């Protein structure tokens, strides 16, 4: 009904309107139809949807009431049956418990019987001396135990009660171990004490022995270590295959003899001794295991185990246990590969890993507290990691550097890294030679190279960590150092007097000698990737350009010194380096990951908890925003990297901070330059008589060469142009090329405004004065900037256009003036465009109103 109503209404809207009476009748019908629809809803007629809903609700209510009545009746019946059923329950329940006990006993008997059957298989294989059958029987025995235990964990006590069968099986396993050990002795593998392999090593290995070794190794590798750990009290490592436990046992024994206990070779200040020993074992046995993997195991499909990788992983496990013990992360040094099986007697008699009985680790606290030993340990660990990588050790395997990611060790490492890096930064910046220029192209000072080397050292060490969060926290250390470098050099640049600067440098040098003697013990932290400022007695000479600049600015003031220029170049160079690093794949991963991005943007609470103050991000954001609002002149600096497609990434906040300071320093440099230029141009700018002097030629001058041949530079403009030349030359020779490009453009722009407002608009010009102004600009001002651009005139568009108007012939000027006035006052501006005549004369940037004002400055001399 509603659809018909809407269709009818739509037809009436589309239909052309007719008589008013018909429209009113139609509207009345529509209203009556709506009233009828509302009545159906109110009275719940059969055609209404709401009535169907109400009827369904009432039906559901009736059904729920019936259901509740049925539940109540059933409950009463159950309560009535309870007295009758209770005696039956008292009789049946003990019988049920007895049946369950008998069932359990029957299952245990069946289990024991099946174990006896499997034991007989092991004994039969042992009697007939069939090694393959024996291995299969033992595997079947342990697999059955694992299946039963996984099905019913409560059966473990019953399993442990069958000690006789278990001992028979473990004895047979020991028999296989003894046979494999005899084969290892025959092959002289593994080589523990380095001997001359050319005499007794490789040549004694025949293919039959190697084939026998590979067969036994593959057969024993099929044992599941987790199945064996069910019965023994000292579980074996699951990640190391069973035959490798046998191979590594003598190596572990010798390792523990030399590097554990009271032996002289066990020194916490010499971690390279035991790490080099492990690396030597790997290299010594590498040829043997490589040949076995390549020629005897690689073609077999029944085992994925690599002898070489298993050997390396087992030896690295010894390193990790030693590091954990020395650093105090574990109270005992576990015995990993001692294959002496001891039966478990109870469910609780099991150790997470076999431990040595020698308690007390007094060296752990000493190693962490001694900065020299701890820093040396970090160096050795990272070097060992690199050497393992060269030996094709897989990255997803445990590595010695994993110990460094432990919170206790990592917090100590971060604090030490931050402290030593800050001390090294002070040494770098406190050395006078650090401010010498080492690259005449980019005007890069030595301190930038030293600081980048320091950042490389910190970043290179963190790249070997496998934990992503730990690497991100090292990036935070780099950001803190970048901010510290920024604070120091900006403070150094803004010192008013050079004498104070030299005194501070002398004091810092004396302090650096003392602190250097203190931190030489920590020098190994940065020895590989950074240089000491006192390492060479021959320091580079300060650039001659800087010395000339010092002499040049003596008459201007001490605000802009060579240190100011060097610091500005240093900030720009480091800014470009950060932008390049931000788009490196290593740093891009931190920015793409939301968790690490949040840590770097908003700070890491964990760093605050350990006492390492992170970067104050809010302060940086406020400073950068303030700089952006104050300095809109050099916005091209911020957008100059857009065309390169580069992004700030993790260095975004630092780049904003550096951008803001570059803009500030450039603005102050330009202001100081303009102040000096304006002071020396006053005589030239306000020489009213000079611009109104009469011409020897009647009428206005034309553009012919004969009339301009007698013109020379204005005598009162020499000081201004010489100062401009010197400023541009010394700025171009001392500033970074990109910075100088922005500076000369800004100087040109501000000179254009200054000369236009103070010289042209403040004076009146005779024909000779206008010609003199054009001569000065064309032959002296523009050529100074032509060294840096092919067309300098567009940067002086106001004075260029003004000179064109001032040097027009009298008739042309009057006609142009009338045309502009007529065009401006005309109502039909499309037909009389005032810009047309200006564009024909070469005036491209001045408005018609400004052109009229310039034309009014032409003095008419009688």
TrEMBL record:
The lineage of its organism: Eukaryota, Metazoa, Spiralia, Lophotrochozoa, Platyhelminthes. GO terms for cellular component: Dsl1/NZR complex. InterPro entries: EXOC6PINT-1/Sec15/Tip20_C_dom2 (IPR042044), RINT1_Tip20 (IPR007528). This is RAD50-interacting protein 1. GO terms for biological process: endoplasmic reticulum to Golgi vesicle-mediated transport; regulation of ER to Golgi vesicle-mediated transport; retrograde vesicle-mediated transport, Golgi to endoplasmic reticulum. PROSITE patterns: RINT1_TIP20. Pfam families: RINT1_TIP1.
């Amino acid at each position: 009904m509603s659809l018909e109503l809407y269709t009818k209404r739509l037809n009436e809207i589309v239909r052309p309107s007719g008589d008013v009476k018909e429209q009113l009748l139609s509207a009345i019908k529509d209203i009556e139809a709506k009233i009828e629809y509302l009545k159906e809803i109110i009275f719940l007629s059969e055609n209404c949807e709401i009535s169907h809903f109400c009827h369904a609700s009432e039906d559901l209510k009736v059904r729920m009431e019936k259901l509740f009545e049925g539940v109540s009746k059933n409950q009463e019946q159950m309560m009535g049956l309870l007295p009758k059923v209770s005696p039956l329950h008292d009789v049946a329940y003990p019988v049920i418990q007895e049946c369950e006990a008998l069932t359990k006993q029957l299952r245990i008997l069946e289990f024991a019987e099946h174990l006896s059957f499997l034991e007989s298989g092991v004994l039969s294989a042992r009697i007939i001396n069939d090694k393959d059958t024996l291995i299969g029987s033992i595997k079947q025995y342990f697999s059955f135990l694992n299946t039963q235990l996984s099905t019913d964990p409560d059966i473990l006590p019953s399993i442990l009660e069958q000690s006789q069968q278990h001992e028979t099986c473990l004895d047979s396993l020991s028999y296989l171990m003894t046979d494999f050990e005899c084969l290892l002795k025959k092959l002289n593998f593994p080589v523990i004490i380095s001997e001359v392999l050319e005499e007794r090593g490789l040549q004694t290995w025949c293919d039959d022995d190697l084939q026998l070794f590979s067969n036994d190794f593959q057969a024993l590798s099929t044992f599941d270590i987790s199945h064996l750990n069910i019965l023994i009290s000292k579980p074996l490592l699951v990640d190391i295959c069973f035959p490798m436990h046998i191979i590594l046992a003598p190596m572990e024994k010798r390792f523990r003899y030399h590097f554990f206990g009271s032996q002289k070779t066990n020194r916490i200040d010499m971690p390279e001794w035991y790490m080099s020993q492990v690396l030597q074992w790997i290299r010594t046995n590498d040829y043997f295991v490589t040949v076995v993997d390549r020629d005897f195991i690689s073609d077999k499909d029944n085992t994925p185990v690599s002898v070489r990788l298993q050997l390396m992983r087992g030896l690295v496990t010894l390193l990790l246990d030693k590091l954990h013990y020395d650093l105090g992360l574990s109270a005992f040094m576990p015995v990993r590969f001692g294959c002496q099986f001891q039966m478990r007697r109870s469910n609780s008699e099991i150790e997470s890993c076999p431990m040595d009985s020698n308690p007390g680790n007094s060296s752990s606290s000493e190693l962490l507290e001694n900065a020299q030993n701890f820093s040396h340990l970090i160096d050795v660990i990272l070097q060992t990691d690199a050497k393992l990588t060269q030996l094709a050790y897989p990255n997803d395997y445990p590595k010695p550097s994993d110990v460094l990611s432990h919170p206790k060790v990592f917090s100590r490492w971060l604090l030490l890294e931050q402290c030593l890096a800050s001390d090294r930064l002070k040494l770098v910046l406190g050395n006078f030679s650090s401010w010498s220029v080492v690259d005449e192209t980019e005007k890069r000072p030595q301190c930038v190279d030293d600081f980048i080397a320091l950042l490389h050292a910190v970043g290179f060490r963190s790249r070997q960590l496998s934990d992503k969060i730990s690497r991100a926290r090292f990036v935070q250390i780099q950001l803190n150092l970048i901010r510290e470098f920024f604070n120091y050099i900006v403070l150094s640049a803004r010192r008013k007097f050079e004498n104070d600067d030299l005194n501070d440098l002398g004091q810092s040098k004396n302090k650096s000698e003392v602190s250097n003697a203190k931190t030489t013990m920590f020098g190994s932290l940065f020895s590989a990737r950074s240089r000491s400022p006192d390492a060479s007695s021959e320091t580079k000479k300060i650039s001659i350009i800087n010395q000339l600049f010092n002499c040049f600015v003596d008459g201007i003031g001490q605000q802009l010194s060579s240190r100011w220029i060097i610091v500005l170049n240093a900030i720009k160079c480091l800014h470009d380096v950060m932008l390049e690093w931000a788009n490196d794949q290593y740093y891009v991963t931190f920015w793409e990951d939301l968790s690490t991005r949040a840590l770097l943007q908003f700070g890491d609470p964990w760093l605050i908890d350990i006492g390492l103050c992170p970067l104050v991000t809010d302060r940086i954001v406020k400073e950068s925003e303030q700089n952006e609002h104050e300095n809109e002149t050099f916005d091209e600096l911020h957008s100059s990297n857009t065309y390169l497609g580069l992004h700030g990434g993790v260095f975004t906040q630092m780049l904003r901070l550096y951008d803001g300071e570059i803009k500030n320093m450039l603005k102050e440099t330009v202001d100081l330059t303009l102040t000096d230029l304006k002071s020396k141009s006053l005589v030239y700018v306000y020489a009213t008589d000079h611009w109104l002097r009469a011409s020897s030629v009647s009428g206005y001058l034309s553009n012919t060469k004969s009339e301009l041949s007698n013109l020379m530079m204005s005598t009162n403009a020499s000081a201004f142009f010489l100062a401009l030349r010197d400023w541009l030359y010394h700025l171009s020779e001392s500033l970074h090329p990109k910075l100088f490009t922005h500076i000369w453009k800004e100087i040109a722009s501000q000179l254009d405004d200054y000369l236009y407002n103070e010289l042209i608009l403040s004076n009146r010009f005779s024909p000779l004065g206008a010609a003199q102004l054009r001569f000065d600009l064309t032959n002296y001002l523009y050529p100074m900037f032509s060294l840096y651009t092919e067309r300098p005139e567009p940067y002086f568009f106001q004075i260029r256009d003004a000179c064109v108007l001032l040097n027009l012939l009298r008739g042309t000027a009057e006609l142009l003036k009338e045309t502009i006035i007529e065009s401006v006052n005309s109502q039909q501006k499309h037909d009389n465009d005032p810009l047309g005549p200006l564009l024909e004369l070469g005036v491209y940037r001045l408005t018609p109103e400004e052109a009229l004002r310039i034309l009014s400055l032409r003095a008419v001399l009688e």
